[in-house]
Design goal:
In chain A, about 25% of the residues lie in helices and about 25% in strands. Chain A is α/β, with parallel strands linked by helices and about 550 residues long. Chain A folds into 4 domains: about 180 residues, FAD/NAD(P)-binding domain (3-Layer(bba) Sandwich), CATH 3.50.50.60; about 110 residues, FAD/NAD(P)-binding domain, CATH 3.50.50.60; about 110 residues, FAD/NAD(P)-binding domain; about 90 residues, Rhodanese-like domain (Oxidized Rhodanese, domain 1, 3-Layer(aba) Sandwich), CATH 3.40.250.10. In chain A, helix 1 runs parallel beside helix 8 and helix 6 crosses helix 15. The radius of gyration of chain A is 26 Å and the shape is globular. At the A-B interface, helix 1, helix 3, helix 8, strand 20 and strand 21 of A face helix 1, helix 3, helix 8, strand 20 and strand 21 of B.
């Protein structure tokens, strides 16, 4: 009989344990968890705070008792792991309530300790809560009574979910984001939709907000602003909990993640690692990356159990697909953003579109903002971002699947997606993205919203091809108005000019550019149209 | 200057025309449409009948005038095409209102006339309506006043959409389906969920219903039953409108579709065909097939325009992805059903699962019924079916994309799908299907619901591994109850037996089978559990 010790009893650790038991009836399987709970719904914690999940028991998916009965697992909560002796293959396990310490031998050791919240070096930071465990949520819940204001340091996924949920509790919430945009995985012109939506729902969002002091009832920013805050939560991000691994001399990467091979083995072949504590390999670049997502942890847990029980299998590179919902708006991303691709100096094509989530003639449709980042060399999909009230989740999942399947951006045109007017369009938003990618791959020229100013300076004529009414309600400074349907008759006005055309979303602009180019006028279309330009430029 | 004549002005024809214009500013483009309307929302017609789409103008996406202004198209409605002279490259165009007939020369001819409703040879069938055009919907709307009962002949997509919409109008609806199940693209144990849902919403569904006579106020069935029907609509299906092509001597396939190559060219290289009138190539078998879907028509329209204007491109084989929504239930399918695969004598593996559409701990989740048909030889996904109140559209789109990308069924385990508790699970239903596929590919044995009786006859012991309470509320006849958590202690009861285990959905059954097999007991899991078995066997 062999023994496997698993450090960490949430997503990755528990997936390893249960799969191990299904593969091996005899193995001794010990799971140790530092907190008091295993297999809890960590992604549900903000929603319990917001009373969306009303029953605390809903968060507790399994208990040591239920796991013993079903899977014959030896699950030990409130137990800290330390002092791995790799030569002897032992690990020390200490009960944090009783202080009792045992030295446990293992044949295989699996490290799934997760990540720890990053706590910035700010005076008073000890007053700030973090949200990672059931104990954390209990502490915040206990503190909430009578609180009227909250400051959330960090405008990432957890920060935004907290903002929504605290607002649900009637608390006046301010999100403090150090950088110039919230939601780092998105590009700024996409993140702005989320910020506006938060603001429309009563949440104050401050970007470029550098917190310098936290006192009992307020947070002070470097620029002198003072934010009232009965409650402060730091949600800046997480760092891999790799201390145990590092102390044992296991290889740890630059960004603190435990280094593993494609069988999730650490530099010690008897020790595996997974989840938020371990490095992943990025699907776009192949480089090491940190992606703290439950799906990957679960998947790798199953994989490790298979490897330990003798099945050859290898892990996939990670796309980092993620989504957040705030006040009914969905924001999702997969792969690389434009800024990440540009930082890596990739030659890219960028596509913005703003279709309806389902056929406009069927009631209740809402607008989707979809962005695609494409490798200019081979039309590969590098990443996508989708924001909308409905159907963003579906489109990001479809694109993530296309990326996994190695489809090109133009191939998206050919996807056969289920269409009835409640669910999509005969040309689905993802198909439309593919059509545009195909046009670009075949030489159609577009300009990005941030290139307009330079284009005008370079002598391009900015032509608003929307209707006169739309033009009158607001346009890009310097634009002349020639509605697309008038373009045939007014072509002579544009002879010998270079035309940067735009409409509301890009479709009429595409028609105009086709007409102009086919008539011998050099023309480019403003990608994403006035909507994308104004998202950034109209406040 | 060249001339292209396009016969048919809805999805495929109009996509061809507008793309042609974007590619060629000079070409003469003539679109002729037999009905009075072009570019109308044919998938919206049932919803206009049901007052879900309230404004008739919403159905009319474009007009000849708007298409002239935007794309300089010569669009002629109420115009019948006939008498193609392939040698002379001319076609006769007759205005059906004035009788005026012209002979029009073409360089390229594009046939996109669509399909015609199948009208069965039943006495009184001339009293039945069909639903295909705006004129059809106007006729039914005009007839509806005072009507209290309706019989819909045909339980396919259009029939079910009509059932919902007529019920919305307060009409007592009976669906008459000739075969033993509604929704032919689904297998019977999946279609039954849709049938029950219709029945729960007040629609009468009669399968095995052979209509033999239609009179003014009723429909008579072969078995003698008489169905009251102020309104009768025949929605049995469609046949390709390929007469014009056939008369011109173009090759037409066995099932009536115009034969085309992968550039959508007919047997005459100057003539193209697409849409419901043309054959497609099936993605699973490569054989000719008929798939009357708007998405494919639009895609092929673009492709034909590209080919005519000199760009080399080829069409993809079709997966036939489709979805219908009825009374809030979604039913979707892609690729082949089990019955189709078995009819083709493919060696397959079949997977049923019943996960929640999003994390159960987050409010509002609902159950999804997901079926996967897998090639036993190479783990290829042959098809999928998904039925549920939410998220069926997303899962079928993901699987359709995986099929297009050539992913195997086991690869579905590795898809990184966007997870937050409102939108999915850390193990998404599609991932779960992949896990099960991976288990089956690695030798785990399952039995299908229709194999239980034979298995028991062959000496397998049927073990219900659910709780005693679940067992008491109903089980499969002959089953003994050993709850999965008791199995360790009661293993000796099963020594030397072959065990067919089952639980509610298949998960506990999987744990039980793992335990039994690892303990040396031959065991198989009932795929889809008691839920799939009872869908068919409990009425």
């Amino acid at each position: 009989m062999t023994t496997t010790v698993i450090v960490g009893g949430v997503a990755g650790g528990m997936s390893t344990a249960t799969r191990l038991r299904r593969r091996d009836e005899k193995m001794e399987i010990i799971v140790v968890e530092a907190s008091g709970y295993v297999s809890f719904a960590n992604c549900g914690l903000p929603y319990y705070l917001g009373d969306v999940i009303e029953d605390r028991d809903e968060l507790l998916l399994q208990s040591p008792e239920s796991l013993k009965a079903r899977f014959n697992l030896d699950v030990r909560v409130n137990t800290r792991a330390s002092d791995i002796d790799r030569a002897a293959q032992t690990i020390a396990l200490t009960n944090t309530l009783t202080g009792e310490r045992v030295t446990q031998a293992y044949d295989h050791l699996v490290l799934s300790p997760g990540a720890a919240p990053v706590t910035p070096n700010i005076p008073g930071i000890e007053k700030a809560h973090t949200l990672r465990t059931v104990e954390d949520v209990d502490r915040i819940t206990a503190a909430l009574a009578g609180m009227e204001t909250a400051a959330l340091i960090g405008g990432g996924f957890i920060g935004l979910e907290l903002a929504e949920n605290l607002a649900h509790r009637g608390i006046d919430v301010t999100v403090l984001e150090f950088s110039e945009q919230i939601m780092a995985p998105l590009d700024p012109e996409m993140a702005i939709y989320v910020q506006r939506h938060l603001e429309n729902n009563g949440v104050t969002v401050l970007t470029g907000a550098d917190t310098v002091n936290i006192t009992d009832k307020q947070v002070e920013l470097r620029d002198g602003r003072v934010i009232p805050a009965d409650l402060v939560v730091a949600a800046i991000g997480v760092r891999p909990a790799s201390e145990l691994a590092a102390e044992a001399g296991l290889e740890v990467g630059e960004r603190g993640g435990i280094v593993v091979d494609d069988a999730q083995r650490t530099s010690d072949p008897a020790i595996f690692a997974l989840g938020d504590a371990a490095e992943k390999r990025d699907a776009v670049s192949g480089d090491a990356t940190l992606v703290p997502l439950a799906q990957t942890a679960n998947r790798h847990g199953r994989l490790i159990a298979d490897v330990i029980t003798g099945r050859k299998t290898t892990s996939q590179k990670t796309l980092g697909t993620a989504i957040v919902g705030v006040f009914g708006l969905q924001a999702a991303s997969v792969g690389w953003s434009e800024k990440r691709a540009r930082a890596a100096e990739r030659d890219i094509r960028v596509i913005h579109l703003h279709p309806q989530d389902h056929a406009g003639y069927y009631p209740g449709s809402s607008q989707i903002h979809l962005k695609l980042v494409v490798d200019a060399a081979d039309d590969a999909i590098l990443g996508a971002q989708v924001v909308g009230e409905a159907g963003a989740d579906k489109r990001i999942d479809v694109i993530a699947t296309a990326m996994r399947g190695g489809l090109t951006a133009s191939d998206l045109a050919d996807l056969e997606l289920a269409y009835a007017p409640q669910f999509g369009s005969a040309k689905d938003p993802v198909n439309m993205a593919g059509f545009i990618a195909d046009n670009l791959a075949n030489g159609e020229k577009t300009a990005q919203y941030h290139e307009v100013e330079q284009a005008v300076a370079d002598g391009w004529t900015l032509v608003d091809v929307r209707s006169e009414g739309e033009f009158a309600r607001g346009t890009i400074p310097g634009a002349v108005n020639i509605p697309v349907d008038d373009l045939h008759g007014r072509m002579d006005e544009l002879a010998d000019q270079k035309v940067l055309a735009f409409c509301r979303v890009g479709q009429r602009g595409h028609v105009a550019v086709s007409l102009l180019e086919n008539s011998g006028v050099e023309a480019a279309n403003l990608d994403g149209g006035y909507l994308t330009w104004s998202a950034v430029n109209i406040h």
